[in-house]
Amino acid sequence: SGSATYLKQILSYPLGASVNPRLLEENASYRALASSEFTSLTAENHMKMALIHPEANRFDFSKGDEILAFAKNNKSRVHGHTLVWHNQTATWMKEFQGDQQAWENLLKNHIQTIVKHYQGQIAGWDVVNEAFLDDGSLRPSLWANHIPDYLAKSFIWAHEADPKALLFYNDYGQDGKPKKMEAILNMVQDFKKRQIPIHGLGLQMHISIQSKNEEIKKVIEQSTATGLSIHLSEVDVAVNPKNNPDFVLDSIVQKAQSDKFQLLFTSFANIPASQQYGITFWNVGDKDSWLRGYFKRPKEYPLLFDEAYQRKGAYGELIEEIKRK
Ligand code: G3I
Fold this sequence. Notes:
The protein is of the alpha/beta class. It is 42% helix and 16% strand. The chain has a single domain (7-324), classed as Glycosidases (TIM Barrel). It is built from 13 helices and 9 strands. The longest helix is centred in the last third of the chain and has 19 residues, at 251-269. Ligand G3I is lined by residues 44-45, 87-88, 129, 172, 204, 234, 290, 293-294. Ligand G3I binds next to helix 12.
């Protein structure tokens, strides 16, 4: 509230947001906030398979390049999201026919063409996104179904293409899903044993005011214990997860949300500095949240900036709490 200090100025690691190139072009308030408040940017959608590789022999880097140019102008880091995912695959991929070798060629070419295009300009990549189900089993997908050991292969191919890029495994809902967390930790152990390159873990942190603090702290600690870099990669704190149409954002809810933001930042502060890759919010202001668009929850207010792209009370409270610790 009226604080002149920017949150980014008191953090020793990048503060990020996922962005949408259309909003960067069309909306001046959004654009101003994206450049003034954040020091790391992630494409919300435009580096995903369906958008960046729309046809077998055609890549479309135009929107990703726009985000990169904006970030460069702003001296922001760019985080790459995401090379391999079960969701938002291209139609041609879904229709693809071929033996195992053909599928491997497809995925290797996808990964390496993109990583090489952005070589030296993207600090880290979410190489594989959301590969495990809540029960810890491997999620069925085009990749899991056609390529044995596709996780390890994806990391090896990405590393070949840009040996300097940090390679992340990114997933959601580790808190309260111990089997999923265990599967991720087992994967890291297995990679280390086999010398498969992996440098970081992304914990998306799509949480809500009802999420349990102990579970959140625990998964951050367990992830940190791997020694890898840690990215809270898609933060938002839902206040109306049941989509109650009569929901009112009152002071009790605001306080609960503020407390959750503080929990995430103070837990992150306990991570050794060398492992702090950063904290990234999933979208800029409440108005643009995927929870409104994708989940059709019009009365959802999950971010640090409100519908008018103004700082919420939680913003100043977060600064106070970080300074106090
Ligand atoms: O652009 C088309 C538009 O032309 C079409 O008319 C409309 C009709 O459905 O769809 C539009 O595309 C949508 C796209 O967002 C852009 O708004 C897709 O349907 C929609 O599926 C897509 O949703 C994205 C979602 O990933 C897909 O699963 C969200 O924006 C994006 O925020 C969300 O992000 C994911 C992360 O990548 C991974 N972790 C979870 C996170 C939240 O789901």
